[in-house]
From TrEMBL:
Organism: Acorus calamus (Sweet flag)
Name this protein carries in UniProt: Phosphatidylinositol:ceramide inositolphosphotransferase
Encoding gene per record: ERH1
Gene Ontology CC annotation, any one: Golgi membrane
Pfam families according to UniProt: PAP2_C
GO MF, one example: sphingomyelin synthase activity
Bilayer topology: Multi-pass membrane protein
InterPro entries hit by this protein: Sphingomyelin_synth-like (IPR045221), Sphingomyelin_synth-like_dom (IPR025749)
Residues annotated as domain Sphingomyelin synthase-like: 172-240
Main location (coarse class): membrane
Stretches with biased composition (Basic and acidic residues): 264-275
Renumbered residue ranges of the record's region Disordered: 252-315
Compartments in which it is found: Membrane
GO biological process: ceramide biosynthetic process
Length: 315
């Protein structure tokens, strides 16, 4: 038993170390794009913090979702955050599973480059939208009478740049259209829909995305329009950005990291170059152009045409 555990542990260590080496090579090539995506996440948080200074509490707007869904209440508002945290951390862990499991369908660095591109595209549109019109927040801490509904003028620039993390992120107001929680949820679900391998998990992920939408409205964290706009905007952003980015290679073909990413033209030329060669130096495709006689619905690849005709006459 001890020998088996030691052997499996050694295999796991070799797998993790080998995968880490490959991913570090990709990171050395793509770190600028990844860093830019991370910086944009901070800029998005900074924009959300800035619009809070412009927020003015007022009467809650008429909303069809508020009429249809009962209010969870301030004490149960944590439910939607719990669901979102589960989606977030489970997806992050899944993106690193190639370090452990042998079924490697993608490179983690390249996958996160795509995810950050989806997030940045959606967040840029979100910043433009919520700065265009500030709506009175429906959340409990954004209503009239709450001390957090209005932010006093900052004493210094550091108060703004540091975002008052994490309290300033959790208790923000004014950044309504459209929902940031739904941006992350939909980007994660769409990414797993394309690169995941479990059909059941894909179906459950879409169900959780719908439940998350309803919980956000029932918690009064967003208006219904914030969630609806997020659903079609994020899907469109992912669709168009995904078409512009080079497709990630299928790791099942044993593609080396130096060839990443490859275009469709490169794949065609590579497939031609990798055709097996015969002893005379000709490729199998070019040499195998002999006429093939069809007898009783079957192709006789190695049959002489004369013998084939005789066979046909004899039948």
């Amino acid at each position: 038993m001890t020998f088996y555990v030691a052997r499996e542990g050694s295999k796991l260590w070799r797998r993790v170390s080998g995968e880490t080496k490959v991913e570090l090579q990709l990171l050395a090539e793509k770190w600028k794009l990844l860093l830019a995506g991370i910086v944009c996440q901070y800029i998005h948080g900074l924009a959300a913090r800035g619009v809070h200074y412009l927020h003015r509490p007022g009467p809650i707007l008429q909303d069809v979702g508020f009429f249809l869904l009962p209010e969870l209440g301030k004490d149960r508002a944590y439910i939607s955050e719990t669901v979102f945290s589960f989606v977030f951390f489970s997806f992050v862990l899944w993106t690193f599973h190639p370090f452990i499991y042998q079924s490697k369908r993608f490179y983690t660095v390249l996958l996160w480059r795509r995810i950050l591109a989806f997030l940045v595209g959606s967040q840029v549109l979100r910043i433009i939208t919520f700065y265009s019109t500030q709506l009175p927040g429906p959340n409990y801490h954004c209503r009239e009478g709450s001390k957090l509904a209005r932010l006093p003028r900052p004493d210094n620039i550091l108060e703004v740049l540091l975002l008052n993390f994490p309290r300033g992120v959790i208790y923000g107001c004014g950044d309504l259209i459209f929902s940031s929680h739904m941006i992350f949820t939909l980007v994660f679900v769409l990414t797993y829909q394309k690169y995941g391998s479990r059909r059941f998990i894909k179906q459950v992920a879409w169900l959780i995305a719908i439940i998350q939408s309803l919980l956000i409205i029932a918690s009064r964290k967003h208006y219904t329009v914030d969630v609806v706009v997020a659903w079609y905007t994020v899907n469109l952003v992912v669709f168009f950005v995904d078409k512009k980015l080079p497709e990630m290679p299928d790791r099942g073909t044993g593609t080396s990291p130096s060839l990443l990413p490859v275009s469709a033209k490169d794949k065609d030329s590579k497939s031609k170059e990798e055709q097996p060669l015969l002893l005379n130096g000709n490729s199998l495709e070019s040499s195998d152009r002999r006429p093939r006689t069809q007898v009783n619905g079957k192709h006789l690849d190695d049959t002489n045409p004369v013998n084939g005709d005789a066979a046909m006459n004899s039948t």
